[in-house]
Amino acid sequence: MQIGTLSARTGLSRDSLRFYEKRGLLQARRSDNGYRDYPEAAVQWLGYVRTAQQLGFTLAEIAADMPLLSQGEEAGPALRATLARKLADIDERIAALHSLRNELASRLAETPETGASCPLRQT
After folding, report:
1. Do 38 and 57 reside in the same domain of the chain?
2. Cα 47 to Cα 40: distance, rounded to the nearest angstrom
3. What's the sign of the alpha-carbon dihedral 54, 56, 60, 63?
4. In this predicted structure, what is the pLDDT of residue 121?
5. Could you tell me the CATH number of the domain that includes residue 45?
6. Are the C-beta atoms of 6 and 42 separated by less than 8 Å?
7. DSSP bridge partners of 2
8. What pLDDT, on the 0 to 100 scale, is given for residue 113?
9. Across the chain, how many H-helices and E-strands are there?
10. Is pLDDT above 90 for 14?
11. CB-CB neighbours of 38 under 10 Å
12. Angle formed at CA 62 by CA 91 and CA 14, multiple of 5 degrees
């Protein structure tokens, strides 16, 4: 299918599709006239890419997992481990943000309404 059709079926812009192709996340054959010709499987693949991005995976992480996805059910344990690692990363970031929030709230509480004291000085 041509890029316009793929764009319409996935809701992704043509520029996004070209970007994914440059990053190696999407492959197209070139017809004799130079048009990109994407396989039908590209629609499902791009759905996976978008879902993975929404779950916090970077394009580099998605690209690294591409070989796993071609393994089908056999990739289950490896994909599960990948998801568990991402969950642990997110938990670490949440903990760091919670700590940062507490520090900011503490400094805000110590700052008079007049702003006479700078809350950004090291304590």
Report:
1. yes
2. 12
3. negative
4. 66
5. 1.10.1660.10
6. yes
7. none
8. 77
9. 5, 2
10. yes
11. 23
12. 125
